[in-house]
Amino acid sequence: MNMNQNVDTSRDASIAALTTLLTQAADALAQGGPELAEHASELRKMVSRPPRVAVVGRLKSGKSTLVNALTQHVIAATGTLECTMAVSMYFDGAPARAEVIGVDGQVERIPLGNGPLTELGMPLDNVDHIEQFLPNAQLRRLSLIDTPGTATLTVENEARTRRVLVDGQKDTKRASSWADSLVFLSDSAPREDEKLFLSQLGMTPLTSIGLLSRADSFGEGAFGHRDPLDYAREHAQSIAGELKNSVSQVLPLSGFMAESALVGRITGDVARTLAHLAPLGREQLLDVIELPDPSTVVPGFTAQMRDMLLDTVGEYGIIAGREIAARDGAVGLMQWMVERSGINRLTEILTGEISYFAVLQRAVRMLDVLDELAGGNVNREHVRWVQSVTLSQPGMHFVMLYRSYRNTYASTPDSTLLGPLRSAIAARTAAEVVDLPAAAPADQVRAELQRRLGEMQNMAMGLLSAAEDEARERLVVAYQAALKAMS
């Protein structure tokens, strides 16, 4: 199924312009001598690749299933294979292959067939991470990092995740492996250790989204008196309150339904088999699922047919999708599963606002690397020149706003400036800079901008952290720029 209609392209021009600017900065850095060449090469890779989304959560929270759904390809192993215990990165590329990167830098190249990687080529303890390449249109917009889990039953799994996502972001020679945004999967309210882990990833709520996974079995499940997906949607809102300092929002998702529909499991045979159950009532359906021989309920309907349906559409698909299969066939059933699963909304978010914020995130990380090099590299004067030229470009306005947002979020997570910063970063019009509708009257927008400017000037007299004071100054610049744009 083509999900291009669910891809948000409205930010593409801004993303492309900023990517060009950052690439030029990396190229300029490389001219400073061999001491800077390796850093420049890593930065060039980081800023020129598609935004990279890290998928994190506890063991068996549905991370690999989500990767398969997002790529519409069974690329991530979902069983108990050793390959699920290593961090895997997925990229668009040919030929289809896996490159297993050892902790010592050794690379083991393994050709990929039509399914997921089944062997590592070296002991798991020697593996740093795996890079997998396959020709895939979805990966041209988003590359993915699948992790073995956080706070899992095995300390080793969490250590592998931390080595790449937490410790790796401190090593500028691994900049091309850094994540730009985050999807956090949970099947319940977040635990304290999960919140702690999220805080260590260097992300902000603008680049992070939460997923209430396994939404099709939420509450009492498919046979409960309330639709589990509707219940999960309501519960996601309460979890969003608990995670408001970590993610921008929490969405319900049935990764199983999305994966099954998008990787081609919903065939005409599946739809016809499911259609046999359309006339049944609730109690009869329950008997079909639970009885050893369901043919006592539906003549000719075997246990093998029942098990096939459970493997492809699940209990919820049997309950809620049987009439759709009878009426609309395989195509209708597949479209219903995709829409009902929540994968469309997730794709829109990942390719839209979060994709844009992810580029701002990596731009800020590039500035962090330049700051580090300017303080200690033998060619620091060249680095400072690159910094100066880069920061003078108009396209860096939103990067500096985002940097202030990130620093304020890290130092003062309850700051009253975070909301205004977030609005100014996301704004496309002068009105949106100050939280007004894009179509708001010009006089109202000017008045609110002037009011906000006065508010920022008054805040200068109060007690602010260093990050907040810089954020206040950035907002002054943003409000003044918005006023100038209206004149």
Describe how the helices and strands are arranged.
Elements (H helix, E strand, L loop, with lengths): L11 H19 L3 H15 L3 E6 L5 H9 L16 E5 L4 E6 L4 E5 L15 E8 L8 E4 L8 H11 L15 E6 L5 H8 L8 E5 L15 H15 L7 E3 L2 H8 L5 H8 L6 H9 L12 H10 L1 H28 L1 H9 L1 H24 L3 H12 L5 H15 L6 H9 L3 H4 L8 H18 L6 H21 L1
Parallel strand pairs: 1-6, 1-7, 2-5, 7-8, 8-9
Antiparallel strand pairs: 2-6, 3-4, 3-5
Helix pairs in contact: 1-2, 1-13, 1-14, 2-13, 3-7, 7-11, 8-11, 10-11, 12-13, 13-14, 13-15, 15-16, 15-19, 18-19
Q: Would you mind describing this structure in some detail?
A:
This protein has helices at residues 12-30, 34-48, 63-71, 155-165, 192-199, 228-242, 255-262, 268-275, 282-290, 303-312, 314-341, 343-351, 353-376, 380-391, 397-411, 418-426, 430-433, 442-459, 466-486; strands spanning 52-57, 88-92, 97-102, 107-111, 127-134, 143-146, 181-186, 208-212, 250-252. With 487 residues, it is of the alpha/beta class. It has 3 domains: 4-254 and 344-353, Rossmann fold, CATH 3.40.50; 261-341, no CATH class; 393-486, no CATH class. Helix 7 (255-262) packs across helix 11 and helix 12 crosses helix 13 (353-376). The relative contact order is 0.11. The mean pLDDT is 89.
Features:
52% helix, 9-stranded mixed β-sheet, alpha/beta, globular, 487 residues
